[in-house]
Write a structure and sequence with these properties.
The N and C termini lie far apart (88 Å). 32% of the residues lie in helices and 30% in strands. It is elongated and about 80 Å long. It is built from 3 helices and 8 strands. The strands form 2 sheets. A 5-stranded mixed sheet has the order 5-2-6-7-8. The chain has a 3-stranded mixed sheet with strand order 1-4-3, covered by helices on one side. The longest helix is centred in the last third of the chain and has 27 residues. The chain has 198 residues and is α/β, with parallel strands linked by helices. Helix 2 crosses helix 3.
Length: 198
């Protein structure tokens, strides 16, 4: 009997040691893939990208994907954003806007800069997720206001990008690309809108 008890104890120890290991969580960032911008002086006019709003289903660390493009969502346990999604979208948009808006005479303020800006860009992300079998999708609304809180322009941006592989690396790369394209679209429109042209 003691031998059986010893074998049972060893089997339990082996089982428990195997259960103690968990898959490490991997963290991802949205990326602009742009190099740093240099400027000896900054324009007097400025634009601030306001805190980006996201829907509740995205307001979490875990990366969200869809099942076959339907309403069922998968919230990953081991793949997470390294920052809140809204912060990532804001950071990428600021990075992409900086160079073209500098050239157009607008300084894009850094996140956390409390300087009162001449213009404020608000972005409301409606959807940013994807399906490993098909595409990632971005849907967002944007608003440009002046320092007096007057709305100068509004728009809706929608995009889709194929997910090239069934990995979270591929999904987040597709999402990064769509956020960059949205920022490039805004960069092509904002200078004229800020000057009062549509």
């Amino acid at each position: 009997m003691p031998r059986n008890l010893l074998l049972l104890t060893l089997a339990l120890l082996v089982l428990l040691s195997g259960c103690g290991r968990s898959t490490p969580t991997r963290y991802y960032l949205l990326e602009s893939a742009l190099g740093p911008v240099k400027a000896d002086s900054l324009p007097s006019k400025s634009l601030r990208v306001a805190q980006v709003t996201v829907p509740d289903y995205l307001d979490r660390n875990s990366i969200v994907s869809r099942v076959n493009g339907q309403t069922e969502l998968i919230v990953s346990q081991f793949h997470a954003w390294a920052e809140p999604v809204g912060h990532g979208v804001r950071r990428v948009v600021q990075e992409v806007l900086t160079a073209p808006l500098l050239a157009a005479g607008l300084n894009v303020l850094a996140a956390g800069d409390d300087t009162r800006a001449d213009y404020v860009l608000l972005i409301d992300v409606q959807r940013l997720d994807g399906n490993f079998e098909a595409s990632a999708v971005l849907e967002a609304r944007w608003t440009l206001k002046n320092r007096h809180d007057d709305v100068l322009a509004r728009g809706i941006y929608a995009d889709a990008e194929p997910v090239n592989g069934k990995t979270y690396d591929a999904l987040t790369a597709a999402e990064s690309l769509m956020v960059r394209r949205m920022a490039e679209h805004l960069a092509s429109r904002l200078p004229a809108l800020a000057r009062g042209k549509s």
